[in-house]
Design brief:
The chain is of the alpha/beta class and 264 residues long. The protein has 2 domains: 182 residues, Vaccinia Virus protein VP39 (Rossmann fold, 3-Layer(aba) Sandwich); 63 residues, Orthogonal Bundle (Helicase, Ruva Protein, domain 3), CATH 1.10.8.100. The chain has 9 helices and 9 strands. The strands form 2 sheets. The chain has a 7-stranded mixed beta sheet with strand order 4-3-2-5-6-9-7, with helices on both faces. Strand 5, helix 4 and strand 6 form a beta-alpha-beta unit. The N and C termini lie far apart (51 Å). It binds S-adenosyl-L-homocysteine. The site of S-adenosyl-L-homocysteine (SAH) has 25 residues, from strand 1, helix 2 and strand 3.
Amino acid sequence: MPRPDIKPKQSLGQNFLTDKNIALKIVHSLQLDKEDTVLEIGPGLGVLTKIVQPKVRKLVAVEIDRNLAAMLEEQFSECPNCEIVQSDFLQYNMSDFKEKNIRVIGNIPYNITSPILFKIIDNRSAVKDLTMLIQKEVAQRIVTRPNTKDYGILAVFSQTFAEVKILMHVPSTVFSPKPKVESSLVRWVFTEEYAQDILDIELFKKIVRQAFGKRRKMLRNSLREFFELNTGIFDYTKRPEQLDIKEWIGFANKMKAIIPVQKE
Ligand code: SAH
């Protein structure tokens, strides 16, 4: 590693982890159990895959690149507990998993961090936790608190459905080719503690998205375009970055009760 015969594809966000110690640290942080099922997104040359495989009951690795998937297939052909899937993870059907409590890991292409995260959130009933290497600035947007410029959809969605934590920062020098940005290892441990109080998850997500789409505006103004609001029922004068998770849930639940018509 890196392999001279593999030309990394920038379009697929291929920045391979080349530092064995960091790879070991990442896997160690998972505290894997021999009964665990691990789903790896974007295994690439298999740096993390190799370390995880002997420690778990089952490993499924989803790689979009045909050449890499074929190589991994060969590399792990003798391995009874591994399944290499050649697929775009965003198209991959997670409901095929019979298991609950799946551990999801990945050093993924940074340009699809949000869609991957949203997909895992939608499938969280099968997932215990998600541990991803992502761009450092994005990690900051995930763990930040209200009333900061970074607070937005990523923070609200992450913190509504999971406990989130930055586990470590990783310099760009441990990857080949070296990316332009710094990275952080982030973990989402899914919990229904907040989410169980949401009356309508789809409406909740829609309201959060719509409100942050106009983050300078007061909620009553940004949401008026989409909902027929009966004004004066409660305080719409806050801006989206001022609401903590409990307030978002309370707000979305009240909206559910008062929305007479949903446009769109
Ligand atoms: N995890 C490896 C590779 C990181 S590079 C390592 O740490 O070294 C990112 C990997 O994600 C590449 O192998 C790339 O081909 C793969 N990838 C990119 N888009 C993907 C997608 N939509 N679904 C699955 N894998 C993807």
